[in-house]
Amino acid sequence: MAQFFQIHPQNPQMRLVDQAVGIIRGGGLIAYPTDSSYALGCHLGDKAAMERIRRLRQVGDRHHFTLVCRDLSELALYAKVDNSTYRLLKAHTPGPYTFILPATREVPRRLQNPRRKTIGLRVPDHPIPQALLTRLGEPLMSSTLIMPGQTTPLGDPEEIREVLEHQVDLVIDGGFCGLEPTTVIDLVDGAPRLARQGCGEPIPELA
């Protein structure tokens, strides 16, 4: 049965954050709040936890996982970023945007899009994931918490606890979240392309 931590969305209790990080490092799968919606997260190198996410969400091998990073400098370790791309990223991070970029060798091959060799990356503007990432010292492998057959993420932590109590190891209750996933921007071919409109203000470069 999943543990359930009530963590303050503005001033996270670091004792609970450290316990959550211990669960992640121990191979656990967590449900946690972000600045767009709730998400599933696990350790970057944990293949078994990644497969648990696939089964829970019922997605195939081509599902695009996201690396949730602490800041832009960490993001740049996992993606190939040129000067113009860096300027766009700097203007829109942190925030509710996922950027599709060419992956570096730091990204395990199983996380990359098998055809394009890309990875989705984002920097959330929310104290809870920021606290988790700071303590963890590396990105979280993540996927929006959308259940099979649904079009919007789960947003009520009590409902998440009820639905997932036997499928995840920890539910972090950070209060109600939005019901809209991130906006996805494809930056692979140079010119920014809107891949999915979601949470977040429109980006002028896409107009």
**Whole-number radius of gyration?**
16 Å
Tally the structural domains.
1
Task: State mean pLDDT (0 to 100 scale).
Answer: 92
* Shape call: globular
How many beta-strand runs?
A: 10
CATH topology: DHBP synthase
Structural class: alpha/beta
- So, the CATH homologous superfamily? DHBP synthase
The end-to-end distance, rounded to whole angstroms, is 47 Å
Main sheet overview: 10 strands, mixed
Query: How many helices in DSSP terms?
Result: 6
Q: What's the architecture in CATH terms?
A: Alpha-Beta Complex
| Regions with little confidence, pLDDT below 50 for 5+ residues | none
As laid out across the biggest beta sheet, the strand order is 1-8-2-3-7-4-6-5-9-10
Strand content: 15-25%
CATH class: Alpha Beta
Description:
The protein has 207 residues and is of the alpha/beta class. The chain has one domain: DHBP synthase. Helices cover 28% and strands 22% of the residues. The protein has helices at residues 14-25, 47-57, 72-78, 83-92, 127-136, 157-164; strands at residues 3-6, 30-33, 38-43, 66-68, 97-102, 118-122, 140-144, 170-173, 183-186, 193-196. A 10-stranded mixed β-sheet has the order 1-8-2-3-7-4-6-5-9-10, sandwiched between helices. The radius of gyration is 16 Å and the shape is globular.
